[in-house]
Design goal:
disordered N terminus; two-stranded parallel sheet
Amino acid sequence: PQPTAPDVAPDAASPELPTGVPWDRIAEIVSELTERVDSMGPVNVDAIQEFEELEQRYIFLEKQNADLVNSKAELLEVISKINRTTKDLFAETFEKIRVNFQEMFTELFGGGRANLILTDESDPLESGIEIIAKPPGKQLQSVTLLSGGERTMTAVSLLFAIYMVKPSPFCVLDEMDAPLDESNISRFVKILDRFIAQSQFVVITHNKRTSSRADMLYGVTMEEHGVSKLVSVKFSGRAEAEHPEHSIADTFGKSRKLASETKAHEDFLEEPASESEPATEAQNSDNSDNSESGDADRAPDHFEKPADAEAPGVPEGDLPDEVK
């Protein structure tokens, strides 16, 4: 009999798929992940080196940020210290100026009272200053309600009150005395005299009384139409004019013992008599004698020289032959 093929038994190692698993969903997830990996492109082999460079840059920026934060804290501390010191100095100076302003106001107005008030005492560095003034015979009011002359005198009082605390070497006053009357101008000039020793004042004015007090006067004139010319005049006393402290030799750095300087000073003090005056007088006397004798006799053809007379101012050797 022919042999029959043996029955093949199933492989025991092949796994059996479990039932109830959503294989379709799993296949979709795998497909999605595969697409995402493919979209990332090729792998960057320099990523480690770039990471190290970025890490160093990050550390550097962190240090810079820390320095900035520390600097900000130090600056805020310094600003706070400056504000405290400035407040103390401002309060001290403001009090001195306030006292000086009250005294100067009373002196200029011949009475009355004035005061300086901070509008915000809690923050003096940012606060405004209100000027309160009371001239004699008026009520206490703000400086904005005063007349033009009173406001000018109040400003002068405040200016010189500040000068008494911290003088300035140079000051320009432009038409400050314009709204003032004669009595107030006299007080203004007296106040200027008190500060001339420590400050130099340039006053632009049209007032004669103020101009007469100046040591040097500068003005602009127009001798010809359309042509301006600057003129300067120096006021000095009689003693200074007779013995000037500054000469031409000083201007050029030379000695005052120059012959030109000495002669110019002598000519200024006294003019010498002209040498031609004696000869002229003698000639006039001769003419008068000739006129008196000419009525009786005819004038001779030549003159004879008297034995005891000589021509004044002319040596004998220089006389003409006829006179000899």
